[in-house]
TrEMBL record:
Residues of the signal peptide: none
EC number: 1.-.-.-
One Pfam assignment: MiaE
Alphabetic keyword roster: Oxidoreductase
Single GO BP term: tRNA modification
Name assigned to this protein: tRNA-(Ms[2]io[6]A)-hydroxylase
Enzyme class, spelled out: oxidoreductase
Organism of derivation: Marinobacterium lacunae
GO MF term set: tRNA 2-(methylsulfanyl)-N(6)-isopentenyladenosine(37) hydroxylase activity
Length: 208
């Protein structure tokens, strides 16, 4: 619970109730699980990309290697859950969330690396917050699965943030504040598509 409270303090806002209501609707479950699986796969890919780009940073290599392995395990677990429920995994357009955060990434180093690590921390933190927010509304199997992800995903958030602080060599409060405000905007503003990291459902989507 302490880790979750820390994450809630790190984020600027909770997930909108309208998103939770949409996600808790049984009709939304296939989209939720398919996109969640995509998110786990992308998280592993992001960690691997950092490993390939920053080969001279041993701390990053070790933490991202472990993170990538864990994310792929979560991906496999999502696939197993979907298969048991007759939900077919397939292509799905990504939400605006991650791309929206990355629009503010600086182009020169080490600013680029610092920003990517901060973004990684926010994505992992938001995932944890949504796991916890959704669990009470899901069936027992899914609720248990989402609660089990809280611990590892919480550590991922800490890994990203600690690496950003270590490599910056100076306070990064301003950059964290910048991405915190941007993340809040992406989470709270109306979103036409429902995805695991999407914003508040657009009004017509809610009505439907």
């Amino acid at each position: 619970m302490d880790a979750l409270n820390e994450i809630l303090a790190f984020l600027a806002c909770p997930t909108p109730k309208s998103w939770i209501e949409k996600a808790a609707n049984p009709e939304s479950l296939p989209i939720l699980l398919i996109d969640h699986a995509h998110c786990e796969k992308k998280a592993a890919s992001t960690a691997m990309n950092l490993m390939f780009r920053y080969v001279d940073r041993s701390d990053l290599l070790n933490k991202m290697s472990r993170l990538a392995r864990e994310e792929l395990i979560h991906f496999e677990q999502c696939l197993a859950l979907m298969e048991a429920r007759g939900i077919q995994y397939g292509h799905m357009s990504p939400s605006r969330y991650a791309a929206g955060l990355r629009q503010s990434v600086r182009t020169s180093e080490p600013g680029r690396l610092i920003d990517l690590l901060i973004i990684g921390a926010f994505i992992e933190a938001r995932s944890c917050e949504r796991f916890a927010a959704l669990a009470p509304y899901l069936d027992d199997e899914l609720a248990k699965f989402y609660r089990s992800l809280l611990k590892s995903e919480g550590r991922h958030y800490q890994d990203y943030l600690s690496l950003a602080e270590a490599y910056a060599g100076e306070p990064i409060d301003d950059r964290i504040a910048h991405f915190r405000a941007l993340e809040k905007q992406l989470v709270e503003e109306p979103d036409e598509e429902f995805r695991f990291h999407s914003g508040a459902p657009a009004q017509e989507d809610v009505a439907a």
